[in-house]
């Protein structure tokens, strides 16, 4: 799709959601279960994360759905056809609070997991 200036634009509206919670509350498992696309750092692929058994850095993954009817009325004129949810999987250990805050700042909303 091209805009008025002839520049190629996306037909997918993106919405970032932070996945937050205490260590071992299922954040990464939830993100993995929901996602259809993952970055190279998603789902604790870092060797140190695997060794220690905890998330050490932000992980990014996503899934896409058709744009809901109520949003088509607001966003359809802009040419959006799909809605992509990008999940920002944050660490849960208190010693990684700066990384957690960084992940939350990249997100419009958050899912908090409780175990």
The topology string of helices and strands comes to EHEHEHEHE
Identify the strand order in the major beta sheet: 2-3-4-1-5
So what's the overall shape? Answer: elongated
Assembly type: single chain
Please mark out the parts with pLDDT under 50 across 5 or more consecutive residues, or reply none: none
Structural class: alpha/beta
Description:
The radius of gyration is 16 Å and the shape is elongated. Helices cover 26% and strands 29% of the residues. It has 115 residues and is α/β, with parallel strands linked by helices. The chain contains four helices and five strands, in the order βαβαβαβαβ. The model has no long low-confidence stretch (mean pLDDT 80). It has a five-stranded mixed beta sheet, sandwiched between helices. It has helices at residues 27-34, 47-52, 69-75, 97-105, and strands at 12-21, 37-38, 59-66, 82-89, 109-113.
